[in-house]
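From the pipeline queue, job 12 of 40. The input is one protein chain; the requested action is below.

Action: predict structure.
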Amino acid sequence: MSNYITALQAVLADSYTLYLKTQNYHWNVEGPHFKSLHEMFEEQYRELFDANDEIAERIRALGEKVDGTYKGFSDKASIKEGDMNLGEHAMVTDLFKSNRQVVKTIKTAMDAAEEADDQATVDMMVARTQAHEKAAWMLRSILPDAERKKLDAAADY
C-alpha cells in the first residue's frame, strides 16, 4: 500500500473520530449556550458524515479496502474520543483542537498525494482543509477572550 493511501486512511480515521466526538458533544452539551452549540455541533457532524463517505470512496477508487471498524479507526487516529462530561467551553475547545489536528493529518496526506501526482486526492484534501479550518474558526469564535488567548498562546498551527 502506498504512503499516500496510508496517510489518506489516517485522515479518514481522524475525521471519523471527530465525527463521533462532535455527535457525542451534540447529544450531551449543557449550559447557557446549549441551543446554539447543539445546533452548531449537529451542522458540523453532518458535514463530517458526508466527508467520511467521500474520503472512504476515494480510498476504494484507489484500489484499497477501508477498515471501517472502531478498532481500525482508533488504531489510526491521532485525536482522542470525546468526554461526554465536559462543560460546554471545554467541548468547544476540544473540538477546536481536534479540527486543527485533522488539518495537520490532512497536510501529511496532501503532501504524499502531491508526491504521487494524485491531483484528485490533493483537491479533496484542500477542500477538507478548508472545512476544518472554518469549523475551527467558528468554534474558537464562541469562546471567551481569555480562553481564545490561551489557545492562541499554545498554538502550533
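Job complete. The chain has one domain: 3-153.
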